[in-house]
Structures are given as C-alpha cells and as structure tokens.
Amino acid sequence: MDPLLTAISTHLGFLGYTTPPVPELPPNVEVVNAVHPLKPPFWVLPLHGGAFFRGIYVTTTNAQQDPAGFLNFINEVNAIMALGHFYTIDQQNLVFGAWYYGPYDSGRLGIFIDRYLVEVSVPHKRFKQQSERYLAPSRYS
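-> structure tokens emitted (141 positions)
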C-alpha cells in the first residue's frame, strides 16, 4: 500500500475508525475505507502527492426532480467551504471531496480530519430545510 495511505490508515485507527476492505475494487486501486460508529464514513485515495478524502450522501428523488434547486443548494453550501467542496455527477449522490497534500504529519493530518468532519456535516447542520428535501437521512447529522 502507498506509504501515505498506510500512515493515514494507522492515524484513523487511533481516532476509532476501522478500515475494512472495499469489495470488488479493480486491481491496483488503493483505497482506505474509513468507518466509525459515530462519525461519517469516507474513502481515502492516493492523489498527486497527497490523498483525496471522499464522502458520499445519498440523495432523495427531489434531487432528480428539481435539479436546478439541488444545484443551487450545492452552490450555497460550497460558498462557505474552506477545505473541500461538494459536487454531484448524476444527482443520485452528493459527494464531498477534500485533498490532503504532502507527506504524513500527525498534527497537520489531525487538523485536516477535524476540519473535514466539520465541513462534511455542513449540509445537515447549516442547511437543514434543503438537506431534508434533497438528501436521504443521515445518522451522522
């Protein structure tokens, strides 16, 4: 496994995450599947000298039926993001992505993960009405 992903996986273990394997991954694809009983799950993938953290929300049928409203919701959320951004490809999922750049540093990674967890929860915490309309319920809100 990529040395940075190995270090991140170990760090996540100290934070109470488990990292079960992802079934049916294509050969030579490395992913850390971070799962926690109380915090949002996410994947970590190697990307250009760093690691890409990606979390996914499932959307409701309202996202497909009202794409303009859904995209406006995403734009409003992204306007207050500092670390990452939300995007959708097909209106069936809302994806949050953030890039950790550089080598492993426990202090930097700890700050990054703390901020990641704050930002990934913004739709449900700051945009409650829109998130109830466009996003499936989340036990991490």
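The beta strands are 32-34, 42-47, 50-58, 85-87, 93-101.
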